[in-house]
């Protein structure tokens, strides 16, 4: 297959999978959701919609491959390591910005929001504007921000929110020392489940060794109390319960 033919095939996948997703959303008389919607679509919290998830998976994969094919490789690799969007999401998450904006459906000026959460207004505006370009929140007027369909996920009432702890999650702790753990003669090649990057990170911090993640949860009362909500949120995010949606 020629290079151009390969790109055309990716475009066909993008087009067909997008149309399939649209068709799935419209089933049952529902409208196709927009990014600026102020509420979830009925399928957003569905854990059994396999067809939609398959279509979106193809769409995401083809879009990523098309961009990687056409963009300069330096840019693509640079973006792999220099995407700090998660830091801004973490700030919005921990400051409860979505809950605050929920009380202002027409939007709230960054000056007022700054006073409520205690972040300097100019920096806060930059953070929210970056998130807006990524689809999280919307800027209804200059420096006036409101919730949208994506920001609803980080409201305190959303179960999926409890999995979004990038700033203090155990995954990030392990990721920050992964290179060192792999290079360590004791941890790098060990098949021992107690010699993971996470255990290495805990040792570096002088924390007691634990055998599994559940023991870690027991050491953090806040995470322990919301664990059940995190599992419900995981079902919404990953669609794990789709395996039960079988028609004999």
TrEMBL record:
TM region positions: none
Q: Give the domain of life.
A: Eukaryota
> Protein name, please?
O-methyltransferase dimerisation domain-containing protein
Swiss-Prot/TrEMBL GO biological process terms: methylation
Establish whether keyword Zinc-finger is in the entry: no
According to the UniProt entry, its GO molecular function terms are: methyltransferase activity; protein dimerization activity
Q: Which UniProt keywords apply?
A: Methyltransferase, S-adenosyl-L-methionine, Transferase
From the record, what ranges are coiled-coil? none
InterPro entries linked: COMT_dimerisation, WH-like_DNA-bd_sf, WH_DNA-bd_sf
O-methyltransferase dimerisation domain sequence ranges = 96-151
């Amino acid at each position: 297959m020629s290079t151009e033919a390969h790109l055309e095939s990716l475009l066909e996948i993008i087009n067909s999978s997008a149309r399939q997703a649209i068709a799935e959303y419209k089933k049952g008389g529902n409208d196709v959701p927009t990014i600026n919607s102020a509420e979830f679509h009925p399928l957003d919290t569905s854990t059994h919609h396999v067809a939609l998830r398959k279509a979106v998976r193809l769409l995401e994969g083809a879009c990523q491959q098309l961009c990687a094919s056409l963009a300069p490789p330096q840019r693509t690799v640079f973006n792999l390591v220099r995407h700090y969007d998660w830091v801004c999401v973490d700030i919005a998450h921990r400051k409860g910005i979505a809950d605050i904006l929920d009380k202002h459906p027409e939007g709230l000026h960054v000056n007022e929001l700054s006073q409520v959460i205690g972040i300097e207004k100019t920096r806060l505006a930059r953070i929210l504007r970056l998130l807006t370009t990524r689809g999280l929140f919307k800027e209804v007027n200059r420096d006036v921000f409101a919730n949208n369909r994506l920001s609803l996920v980080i409201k305190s009432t959303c179960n999926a929110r409890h999995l979004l702890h990038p700033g203090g999650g155990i995954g990030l702790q392990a990721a920050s020392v992964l290179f060192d753990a792999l290079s360590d003669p004791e941890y790098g090649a060990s098949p021992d489940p107690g010699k993971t990057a996470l255990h290495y990170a805990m040792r570096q911090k002088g924390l007691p060794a634990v055998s599994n993640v559940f023991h870690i949860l027991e050491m953090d009362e806040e995470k322990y109390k919301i664990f059940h909500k995190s599992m419900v949120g995981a079902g919404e995010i990953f669609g794990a319960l789709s395996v039960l949606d079988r028609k004999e």
